[in-house]
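Re: that chain you flagged

S.,

Sorry for the slow reply, it's been a week of failed gels. I finally had a moment to sit down with the sequence you sent. For the record, here it is as I used it:
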Amino acid sequence: MKKVIIFFNNPDNESAMTFIRQNIKEVFEDYIDLSYCYLSEISEDAVLDADAFLVSPNDAMQEVKNHVSDFSKVIKITRSPDKEGLNKLSSIPSGTTVLIVNDSYETSLATTQSFYEVGIGHINLVPFDQSLLHTGLYDNIEIAVTPAESHLVPAHIKKIIDIGYRKVSFETMFKLMKLLKLDVPAVNRNLFRHVYSVVEPNAEFNTNYINGYLKSEMINRVIDTVKMGLILVNKYFDVIFVNDKALSIFNVTDQDSLKLTDYISADILSSNDLSNENIEIGGEWYRYDKYTLTLLNETAGYYITLQNMSDVSASDKHLAEKGFVAKHSFKDIVHQSKEMDEVIQRARQIAQTDHTVLIRGESGTGKELFAQSIHNASSRSKYPFIAINCAALPESLLESELFGYEKGAFTGAHSKGKIGLFEEANHGTIFLDEIGDISPNLQSRLLRTIQERQIMRVGSDRIIDIDIRLITATNRDLEAAIQSGDFRADLYFRLNVLPIEIPPLRKRKKDLSGLFLHFLGKDSNSFTKEERQCLMEYDWPGNVREVENAAIYYKTLSQLPPHILSKQYDGISGKHAANLEKVILQIIEANTSMSHGIGRTFLLQKLNNKGISLSDVKLRSLLSELEKNDYIDIGKGRYGTRITESGSQRIQEL
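Prediction finished late last night. Pasting the structure tokens below so you have them in one place:
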């Protein structure tokens, strides 16, 4: 029980003090022990201790300050007219002069002011001053309004409207509830009732409380039905909110007695890299996830979830069987450079939102690794993560994979139809890699899906609502594709909500050694200083994927690939130029058919397999030169690059 002391000047107005006491007790019931203290009787050196102090006289704050143990616990009592009593004033004719009578001129003036503040403007209010009664100032006034002080009304006034004592204001009650940490259902219920019984000038404050209370009740009822423990803490890990499941996990009855560091180590709480961690609490194992809540790029607090491993395993197994899981998190991104630090920090912040993400970067920079990390750091981490390479499937198959189809939708369709990946990813994340390669038709369908969060299966007329987070990635220059008409501008702006640019390895060579040693694993001890220098001098057009390939080569043959040792990167000239031209034309010829040619990404991979490493920029330049000589035909989208008759003749010449 909380101890509360009310300061009054003296015990003269016992009925008013009793009214105030009853007001407060109606809201706080037996949660508080309420007592009085009279400033006229307290000794000069007395210092009182309590959980809260209420001060009735407006001019007594300085005197009270000398008698309390903690001045931050002092609340000035303000008063508000009773709504029922105030309604009695509506019957007074407009323009009537009315005398406001209270126990002193100061309180009469305060009552008059409160009437004006709540909108009583149709009558003229005159505060009563007993010392002016003999002057005849009030002789022509026929109506008096008083808050339970009828005995003070001048004798000549026959019509007295007693509106009863002013109640303790909602603002005072609310402050007391927060100070005493009594934000409990019973007190809120009583406060909710009290707010409707008074009329206050700050109606917006009252409305915000009511709306906030209703929202809080709705949220509480929803989150108390989930099977996982939910904990909200500030940046210092002080508990702000826990649901019922979390209270049972920690075996405590209320959040005020909960100290997280008694159950979860400070290292785990403060770490930015832990998610999907298994921790033990009270002999049970739980999956621990922490999400950062930010305000204007500043950490404001954290949202922590705890899910019993027995509940996790069943859902995880179902997703794992389908391959709908993200295996990587931000802690798996091997790096040392400041550039990657900044990108990862930005991605962590983005993970806390539900907005669409566009990840850009050259081939092999780790775009899917970032997509998986964002998913695992988000509130959707318990739900599916589905990745699909848009460039790997023809348009018709990609459409049916994404949107699903009804039975009989097309020749070869499954007799029962098929659920699309958008539906499979519901509540989770779908990652569309190589988004720049999708056809105009699919671009149009995807735009509608993003705008409406609705899909329609192939062969169906039924709209299906979906709840997904969309992450896309590309190594294409989408702005150039928009200019050439290959990519819709409206789709680009829908995708480019939260862009992430992953820098290529040649711009963050501090990461090279760490990455190479990571892929080498236990064989890293044999790596020499000279070989390390070779890594730094090479430009790594294939980025991290090429580093991994080089590490595999090194583990297998105990040396770096020849093109790295000889520094044959981009600088191919002289007698090598003709040979390179021949190799490129041969690869294009081998991959030319009537329906399609070869894409630039696949061509780079083929060259890389032959020990020839080129950057995407260099290859573009070479292909452009070959096209000018009419050796190849560079098509758009899936058409790819194809050999011409002149190109085939050129191969024979070379």
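What I noticed first: The chain has a mean pLDDT of 84.

Talk soon,
D.
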